[in-house]
Amino acid sequence: MKKRSRIEEFRRTLVKAWNYKWIYIMLLPVMLYFIVFRYAPMYGITIAFKDYNIFKGVFGSPWVGLDVFKKIFSNKNFWSAIKNTFVLNLTALAVSFPLTIIVSLMLNEIAGVKFKKVTQSILYLPHFISWVVVAGIATNLFTMQEGSINAVLQRMGFQPIPFLSSEGWWIFTYVICNVWKEIGWGTIIYLAALAGVDETLYEAAYLDGATKFQRLCYITVPGIKSVIVTMLILNISKMMSIGLDAPLLLGNSKVMGVSEVISTYTYRIGIVKAQYSQSTAIGLFQSVVNIIILVAADRFAKAIGEEGII
Amino acid sequence: MAKKISGKKKKLTVGLIVIYVLITLLAFACLYPFLNVLACSLSGYNPVLTGKVTFYPIEFTMEAYKQVLGRSTIWVAMRTTILVTLLGTALSLVLTIFAAYGLSIQDLPGRSLMTGLILFTMYFGGGMIPTFLVVKGVGLYNTLGALFIPQSISVFNFIVMRTFFRELPDSLQDAARIDGASYMQVLIRIILPLSMAVIATIGLFYAVGYWNSYFEALIYIQDGDKYTLQLRLRSMLFGSEFGSELGASVDDAGAAVVLPQSLKMATIVVSTLPILVVYPWLQKYFVKGVMLGSVKG
Fold it and tell me: Which of A135, B32, B162, B292 is at a distance of 20 to 30 A from B114, taking alpha carbons?
């Protein structure tokens, strides 16, 4: 009896699936794409445990256990790349996170519709500019000899500042470029949250004689608190990943000590030096750490009563 | 001294004036680098050399543009980039629409498995080298296909579009189905016309992404004649491509001397112009698109 109903159920599913055949035909190229370009590379991760030989390929190369990992873990450049990734991510976050919220709060106060629209459009613009162009512009502005900023400084009687060639200043330049590119774009999510704060709360507080600052502290900020916390957790969960473009394009041989991050290191070991196994092992290590941080951040978010991020 | 408090209108207080000033300064800071680039590309030799150019051209000249646009490499790169952007955006849109439409049908057998397979790739991937080996393995290495096929679907854009499709009223689709329309007809006649805003947003996101991407070209392209604009731009900005050029232009009888810096800035303007042209159109839609994406699930 039970078995028959299960067969019946299976038959009905098949009929339903047959009715959806055109949908499956549409989904075929999509799934093919994910299998070939997203899942097949996951199988390729096995070369992190192999001594990859270009002639033997992914399947034929001999297994070497954890030898590759021993090799990368004993390399001090690897640990330096991890440290640099954290330093750049944390510095950029420490500057851009509060700044984005402050700019959002300021934009929210602006009543002039036209002024708001124009300034927002301008603030969002840099997000759409490629890193190659941003790095080109930054080099034009910040270089030691011909840079416009140093030209102004020198005319004012100051010493030129090595924005791109001293390690400390390079971090400063990196953060400035990131803030410039993404600050406006980052405000979108906060502005949406601010638009959702109940207007009657402000009116009630106003009638009760609350000052502007009090209204900010007791209505506005609590109203967007959960967005702030979620964004912070989301950002912290990405601490191990860093875009390759900015450090690769802004970096130079003089500041390798701070500009070589995990992504650029993976690129240099893998593509430039063709050490496929080592590069893959570094990528796998990064992915695993990423997932651990992500799950931990998600648990933490749920523990403090916020929405999860996964 | 008593001031009339008019309903909802905000009073112009000192604090508000400070906010207006700060936002204006910030907007100027966002715009200044562009103006500086434009000014440098249009200024004469001496003002650029001495760093006198700020945000308006001094000793106006179009010479830098004449020389940049006279180079065949930039036209070849421009053509490649336009081709990749058009083909890539078309492929990406078609695949994303198929995925979002198919997987927005609630009782499709296998829907949750397929959705799960797609979402999982947001959190875990093969990484740079295994992907590189696959792209090489399927014969895309050093072809233009490598610049768009391996990254044709963005999971984020898929989520945005699926959320949008799900919010469309079911009754329209059901009515069409009862009248005997096929799923393909429902998609083309009903869903797509209702979704032009989200399709425009996502299409433009894809297009800007392809236009700006340079890493794929960096690792997958070998031949100089297949360089994309960003890759060409990089070798012009940071390589020696313009350094040696300076001497050559001096030798040219009649050709004015242009600083490599001006040439670089002119190249930046030329390669960014298309983005600046579509931007006002694009920005009408994207805020909505971004908000849709934040509603996950």
Answer: B292
